[in-house]
Amino acid sequence: MIQPTLTGISGSSERDPRDVAGLAGKPSHPAPSRDQVSPFLLWFGLFGAAAAWSVQLIANYAIAAHGCFPRLVPLTEPVFGQATLTLWLVAISIFATVVGALAVVAALVSWRRTSDETGGEAHWLLETGEGRTRFMAAAGMMASSVFLLAIIFHFAVVVLLGHC
Amino acid sequence: MATTVDAPTVATLQTSWETRRGLRGAIRSVDHKTIGIRYLVTSFVFLILGGLEASAMRAQLSQPNLHLLSPEQYNQLFSVHGVTMIFLYAAPVLSGFSNYIWPLMLGSRDMAFPRLNALSYWLFLGAGIFIYSSVLIGQMPNAGWFDYVPYAERAFDPGRNVDFYALGLLLLGVSTTVGSANFIVTLFKTRAPGMSLNRLPIVVWGTLTASFANLFAIPSLSAALIFLYLDRRFGTHFYDASAGGHPLLWQHLFWVFGHPWVYVIVLPAMGIVSDVIPTFTRRPLVGYTFVALATVSTGILGFGVWVHHMFATGLPPLGMSFFSGVSMIITIPSAVGVFAWLATIWYGRPWFTTSFMFMAGFIVLFVIGGVSGVMTAAVPFDLQLTDTYFVVAHIHYVLAGINVFPVIGGLYYWFPKMTGRMLDERLGKWNFWVMFIGVNVAFLPMHLLGLLGMPRRIYTYDAGLGWGTTNLIVTIGAYLFAVGVLLFIINVLVSLRRGVIAGDNPWDAGTLEWSTSSPPPPYNFATIPIVGSRHPLWEDRLPTEGSGSSIIRGGPVLDQGRETFGTSILDAEPTSVMQMPVDSSWPFALAVALTVVCYGLLLPSNALAGIGVVAAAACIIGWLEPMPGSIAARIDTVFGALPVNGQGRHAAAWWGMVCVIATEASFFAYLLASYFYLASMSSNPWPTGGPPALKLVIINTAILLVSSLVLETGRKKGERGQSGALRISIAITALLGISFLLLQALEYSHKTFTPTTDAYGSLFYAITGFHGAHVFVGVIMLVTLFFRGSRAAARGSGSGWLSVANVTMYWHFVDVVWLFVFTSLYLSPYMAR
Amino acid sequence: MQIGQTRLDTHAPSFMHPAGGPAGSQAALGWELTAAAVATVIIISVILIVALAKRRRPAEIDESGHGSARWKIKSGVNWIYTGLAITVVVLIVTFGLTVASINASTHAPNTPPITLNITAHQWWWEADISDSVPSHSFTTANEIHVPVGVPILVRVQSPDVIHSFWIPELGGKIDVVPGQINESWIRADRAGVYRGQCAEYCGLQHAHMAFTVVAEPPAEYEAWAAAQREEASTPDSNTTAAAGEAVFTRSCGGCHAVRGSGALGRIGPDLTHVAGRLTIAAGLIDNSPTALAKWIQNPQAMKPGVYMPTVGLAQTEVDEVVAYLETLH
Fold first, then answer.
1. Do C106 and B317 make contact, defined as CB atoms within 8 angstroms?
2. Distances in Å between the alpha carbon of B785 and those of B156, B589, B794, B797, B816?
3. Is B690 exposed, middle or buried (0-12, 13-18, 19+ CB in 10 A)?
4. CB–CB contact B642 A13 (8 Å)
5. Beta bridge mates, B463
6. Mutate which of B4, B5, B13, B196 to test chain A, going by most A C-beta atoms within 10 A?
7. Per-residue CA distances from B522 to B5, B100, B518, B778, C190 (Å)
8. Which letter, b or e, does each residue of C264-285 get, where b requires 16 or more Cβ atoms within 10 Å of its Cβ?
9. B interface mutation test: which of A16, A53, A79 has the most B CBs within 10 A?
10. From A161, which residue of chain C is nearest by alpha-carbon distance?
11. pLDDT top residue among B789 and B582
12. Beta strand pairing status for C124-130 and C114-121?
């Protein structure tokens, strides 16, 4: 499904009279497989885990900071009790982990679906970045993995050090 | 250069794009190349000033118990040194690079908003002059570059020092925001056809990430600075613990800005490295996809590490550990960069030019600056390291190593493109070695000083502490480094006149900027390139890359005035022909007016500030005067008949408004976050006088919601041709906006507290006041639209429709913000009960 | 000027010689991180040097010849995979050690019997020391003694700007933030004299805001604490010291307190037992009669910007005041 031209939105076939060399068909489209993946899947694969990570970080930090040091003096027991603290931190972390993992999967699916976008093996794509759809899918796999790892580090802190 | 374009066409392009000679022309120029070089030169002037300040400090610290400087002099010097290097050198110098090379690399004829680009530079210059004018009255900023309150409050620092800091950085923030929005829209809209997302040079990824970071981070600094200024000038209590405020609010706001800012000043520099190394190793960068993504990930993660600057402030260990984790995770994308550079060199064929040596040297400095960062990320160890010379060493490896080295290496690389002449390679080698040895002699021992317990920001120390010898070595290294920078400047000055003529592509590099002449003509490219791969000039060597058939010469010309292609975001499909503005003196005038406002606020002189505001308003009106130009709706091109400037997602102006809204929305987000932070930390009852009364506010909320509905309906009708309905809806919306403001004033008159009663009062009036100001601006926009834009739209003018779309979008935004303000300020006190 | 604590070891006040408390755990983590950091820098540098200097076949060399033959490009992505794998493993270990250290060093292992309430001022330290017996609390300034092996809870507050309380050999920093009371703890496992200092920039004399911690065996500490709780003894009348007391009460008592005398000021350091301190002016100089005299005559010359004014005493009055202060053991 390779489109031969960089089509403009007009889709008009009129030629510029100055186009003596017949240029308007030469470079092929940079993303031949762009219609094979929904934009949502692509973008979710790229930024889904990052979004989940931000929610986890900001929400859990607010809870921990307020719980352990509401005002004036630090507490050793959270203001709303240890059980509530743990419950919230763990629940938010589970949510973030699930969303992060889904983002990894989404990126993987996009990657699979665009496997015929460019020639050459996968290694080579990572070198050259050719095939814009596949590039975004590949970038999504890495981004989601990094942010999933960040989510897991955070989760580990909750488990290992979940008190004030 | 060989060109397939005939002489008359070239002459037409030249006439359309060139800037007139003389002072008037210089002030009016909007050429990105001119602006880029101005940025570079100006920031180097600041680099030299900052260097002189550092030299004075290093002399004072070279031995124990010296008295070359008084404590006050020393404090001013270290503060202004930090402000200079971080704000006036490190970021602007990269803006200079990006301004110069972006359109050339992307195959465009200018940035998306050339006039905003000029404004951005003039504001930067204005802010720099403003901050440095403090030296005339001997009151330079003296509370450090991060300016902690309450030391920076008037009670402890009564001079003008901190006012220069606060107002100067606010002005600079406007400059940076405008510049960032411009980079983002430039990337979104004005790439050469075929320059898809996966073909961007890494430096473009770096600046793009930095620009996004700026949009979301600078509002945090602006909020902090506005609070500070209000506290100092009017006695509000944002940071005043005795009246319900909190000093740590400043630290949170500052570092939420501050850490992303660190990446703002390194990511584009790392991008320079990633783009230069391939040229001098004769191969593409290893793992392009990884490196591009690593750049973006670093930018995002950079927003989640701010607390690591505050590990000693008494925060709960659990909360700190979260940020400790992120601060370590952020090493991962950095490691990607390091291994990509190493592998590129390993598998490449190095060509040892000065530029390449700077990049190779950078790798070592990058790793040192990186690992010391990880060490400070470990909370318990950081409690020993923070606020010592270890951190000073770290920040200098980051700034001198990760910013200055790529910058100077990058100048060796692009100087031929900018001037047409090569920098001298022999002097260059000396330049490199002196700087490389200097930077390490100066800053490596600083780590040791930190480990030995030397705190930062002390103007002297006792002999018995055992820091003397190490400090002497540091001083020698610092002077050596300064000599290195001097060698560079000498090289530039000499080579400008006597350098070897460069030719189009002296390094035989692969990216688009090397396809045009050196220096490039005002219009950059006689024919707009059509891109088929990431290295358009290497396609004969890299047969397997991309479709491999970029059209460098003989592509479309676009010569009816200042024109370039507008292209789609992901794949750079041409969607419009953008008509670019001609030169203008409004950006300069507006920058002068805004600088005058700052002086008015500084003195303080309401008259001067008022004059500035009026002048600024006049400049904006003049600026927005419609430009004479082709009124053709479509222009025939090689890609078919393309609309002029486009509409909606296809228009640069639309994206410009999206950027404005993004940054404004973050500003309100920071205001509301401050509200909840103080609500949680305040030692006062919150809110003052109990939960606020709701009756008036509910009416006001309804008014705003209805107004949005009216405007949206009107816009839709207008699009269907009912321009009368559109104009009526605009008028109704404006009236609703005015009634909102009147009711807001009425509500204020019922309040029992004022902005100076306590921190709650300060925040309440700040938040509702800023929102009210936005409504006010919105009303002015609506009135303008009523008299000008909607008529133009009715006549079928594309720019008229764009202004309808933009004003509508802005108005909806103001309403949505209100819903958040309403929920936070009015409803949340009831929910909390 | 000479650093006051001539009885200090000659080394710099550094966590690298931890003497107990959180400093021990911090130093251990610090060495691990430093080792990893140094190793990383060396390994990367070696790889870089080899990559730059390794022998290449002639065909692989391109000294700007601009050869336009097709390039054979080897993929280097495996480097990134390998690098990432190593980095992630190192990070997991590092972060694990960090969390363990946070766990070990945040709170004292057993409840501290002594509480040290620090109030940080521009530019000196007020210390209120208390234990479980309410009547045992007392106030001193710029120098504290601690019993060896006993954890001490440190609670810090500030009436002016942000400072940071830091004794490198005993523990990390804790910022002194107006509007909240921060807590930390220290413990000296070795007898000795330790230097503490302000670590957050707090104005003109941030450089000279130090204090002294004397760690001694519990018995000696108890003796010291008991002595500190005593009021100052009144000098015998008709001595120089007695004259000095009068001058002091009149000229200095508005700011300084000497418990048991008429001097009741709370603005400056409490001087009830000043003669027993090792240094004066927050670690600025050794405590000696000469130094005291110099200091009283012109504090601005020695510590520019300090809030202690030059009172303008006559030379004889200065000598009398010094004689009086020397009696305050």
1. yes
2. 48, 24, 12, 13, 21
3. exposed
4. no
5. none
6. B196
7. 15, 12, 11, 37, 73
8. ebeebbbbbbbbbbbbbbbbbb
9. A16
10. C103
11. B582
12. antiparallel
In whole angstroms, give the CA distance from residue C228 to residue B323: 43
Residue B693 — pLDDT band, cuts 50, 70, 90?
very high
- pLDDT reading at C30 higher than 50: yes
- Cβ(B430)–Cβ(B371) below 8 Å: no
Q: Does C183 touch chain A (CB under 8 A)?
A: yes
SS3 track for B745-811: HHHHHHCCCCCCCCHHHHHHHHHHHHHHHHHHHHHHHHHHHHHHHHHHHHCCCHHHHHHHHHHHHHH
In chain C, the residue whose alpha carbon lies closest to the alpha carbon of A126 is: C77
Pairwise CA distance, residues C97 & C89, whole Å: 12
3-class DSSP string for C61-112: CCCCCCCCCCCCCCCCHHHHHHHHHHHHHHHHHHHHHHHHHHHHHCCCCCCC
Residue-by-residue DSSP string for B349-395? -----HHHHHHHHHHHHHHHHHHHHHHHHSHHHHHHHTTBHHHHHHH
B293 and A143 within 8 Å at the Cβ level: the answer is yes
Q: What is the per-residue pLDDT for C232?
A: 92
Question: Does position A12 have pLDDT exceeding 70, yes or no?
Answer: no
Which chain A residues in 69-108 lie under 8 Å from chain B, judged by CB atoms? 69-72, 74
- Do the bridges between strand C143-147 and strand C210-216 make them parallel or antiparallel, or are there none, so unpaired? parallel
Q: Can you spell out the DSSP letters for B436-497? A: HHHHHHHHHHHHHHHHTT-BTT-S---GGGS-HHHHHHHHHHHHHHHHHHHHHHHHHHHHHH
Inspect the interface and report whether the beta carbons of C75 and A127 lie closer than 8 Å: yes
Chain C: closest CA distance from residue A45 (Å): 20
What average pLDDT does the segment B182-200 reach? Answer: 94
Query: Which ipTM value was assigned to this complex?
Result: 0.94
Contact indicator for B223, B253 with CB cutoff of 8 Å:
yes
Q: How many other CB atoms sit within 10 Å of the CB of residue A112? A: 11
pLDDT at A30: 85
Task: Calculate the alpha carbon distances from B314 to B309, B373, C110 in Å.
Answer: 12, 21, 20
Kindly tell me the burial class for residue B137, based on how many C-beta atoms sit within 10 Å of its own C-beta (0-12, 13-18, 19 or more).
exposed
C73 to B347: CB separation less than 8 angstroms, yes or no: yes
A partners (3+ CB pairs within 8 A) are B, C
Find where tokens 């390139």 sit. Answer: B529
With contact defined as beta carbons under 8 Å apart, do B675 and B763 qualify?
yes
- pLDDT score at C12: 80
Nearest CA in chain C to A121: C75
Per-residue pLDDT at C255: 95
Residues of A in contact with B314 (CB under 8 A): 69, 74
CB contact under 8 A, C5 and B457: no
Nearest to B551 by CA among B533, B537, B530, B572: B530
Residues with Cβ within 8 Å of C25's Cβ and at least 6 positions away in sequence, in order, are B380, C101, C104, C105
Neighbours of B149 (CB within 10 A): 30
Give C247's pLDDT tier (boundaries 50, 70, 90): very high
